[in-house]
Write a structure and sequence with these properties.
By secondary structure, the protein is mainly α. Helix content is 82%, strand content 0%.
Length: 193
């Protein structure tokens, strides 16, 4: 994949890079927070990250600035942000490790399957509705947990369970999508042979 400088420095991709930059600031803000204003700052940083995610996608599609480079780096920024959030929340909510483990397994599966299929000339055509729904629920739950740390444990864990269910649903529904692409590749190979 040959990447041109104008693709690397397009406005949508610059917004994606900003999300990478915001990750360590969020981690620092959350882990060093000692007052409601500190947790609020961490939540604002995640909201800003989410805003730039929505903005880069809108700008790329609306102004015909979608690039292969952007398609590659945007999901990486998303996943690193989500992993950082879940990792930080493990320190406040010990059962968050279950959600973090599910997230890691799902992303490893999808990453490995995507690389295998990409080498065979196949790829998913963007995020599916269930992946977007899972991401939206994840961010909503995490922002509430970040911004309101004195939340009762029962409510916090219920919210995490809801997010985990959406994450598991997305994982289960993505598996047939990757299997379909692999079957298409195999069928093409048999047809070519």
């Amino acid at each position: 994949m040959k990447i041109k400088a104008r693709e690397i420095f397009s406005i949508p991709n610059l917004l994606t890079y900003l999300r990478f930059i915001l990750i360590p600031f969020f981690v620092w803000a959350y882990l060093t927070a000692t007052s409601p204003s500190g947790y609020f700052l961490a939540a604002v940083l995640i909201l800003l990250s989410g805003f730039t995610d929505v903005a880069d996608g809108f700008i790329a599609r609306h102004f015909n600035m979608v690039t292969d480079w952007g398609k590659a780096v945007d999901p990486v920024a998303d996943k690193l942000t989500q992993a950082a959030i879940a990792f930080c929340l493990v320190f406040r909510y010990p059962w968050m490790w279950i959600l973090l483990a599910l997230f890691i397994v799902k992303e490893l599966y999808m990453g490995i399957a995507s690389l295998i299929l990409l080498r065979k000339g196949k790829k998913l055509d963007g995020a599916m509705w269930f992946g977007k729904a899972s991401t939206a629920v994840f961010y909503l739950v995490m922002i509430v947990l970040i911004a309101y740390p004195p939340m009762p444990a029962a409510i916090a864990y219920t919210m995490m369970a809801v997010s985990g269910c959406f994450l598991l649903l997305a994982f289960v529904l993505y598996i047939p999508q990757y299997n379909r692409l692999y079957r298409e590749y195999k069928a093409e190979q048999r047809g070519a042979g």
